[in-house]
Design a protein that fits this description.
By secondary structure, the protein is mainly alpha-helical. It has one domain: 2-Layer Sandwich (Herpes Virus-1). The chain contains six helices and four strands, in the order H-E-E-H-H-H-H-E-E-H. The longest helix has 10 residues. The two termini are 51 Å apart.
Length: 184
């Protein structure tokens, strides 16, 4: 799931195709949950030969197939399918007919960058969190972190008399008969 992936992986705040921050341009999350700039992924895929097999179109990071199965669904997959349908290479992979009004080569390529400048200097961290949503939308609120503790109180639906008592003595006393399988 997304939460498992998020907790098990390091978060990359830069697109591996262009080495620029995700906050710079529109993003798309693949079914494998890796995130890319839409224009970077489109440029990569649109430059492949027109007869490239669907199975050959894979995530640049983990090599998983880009196209979801016909019966695969999730909020992320639904957003991905909508975006893929806006390109002819994506339509082909989804099993949709080619749209003659779409020219994949006419979509502007991603901006160029100075790779040396990105890798030489220290990376700056902002004080505002960047939130990348399931639909690939990037939110960067202009407010600081809230470090105030949250207080919560809990109460039982039952009266105090209905709560069973628990004898902690076996856990706190020095009894050896429990360890030696002897009867007291």
């Amino acid at each position: 799931t997304y939460l498992d992936w998020l907790s098990d992986s390091g978060y990359d705040s830069f697109c591996i195709l262009c080495n620029q921050s995700f906050t710079e341009r529109d993003t798309i999350r693949l079914k494998c949950l890796h995130l890319f700039h839409k224009d970077c992924l489109h440029a990569r895929e649109a430059n492949m030969a027109n007869d490239t097999k669907v199975e050959s179109r894979r995530c640049p990071k983990c090599n998983d197939k880009i196209f979801p199965a016909q019966n695969q669904t999730s909020p992320t997959v639904e957003v991905l399918k909508v975006w893929l349908a806006t390109t002819n290479w994506g339509r082909q992979g989804l099993g949709l007919p080619i749209d003659s009004s779409i020219n994949d080569k006419a979509i502007p390529p991603p901006p160029t960058f100075n790779e040396k400048a990105i890798h030489e200097g220290p990376q700056e961290r902002t004080q505002t969190p960047t939130v990348i949503n399931m639909d690939g939308r990037v939110d960067s609120p202009q407010m600081g972190y809230n470090n105030k503790p949250h207080e919560r109180s809990y109460s039982s639906r039952h009266g105090a008399s209905s709560i069973p008592s628990f004898n902690y003595e076996p856990f706190t006393s020095q009894t050896t008969h429990l360890l030696n399988d002897e009867n007291p």
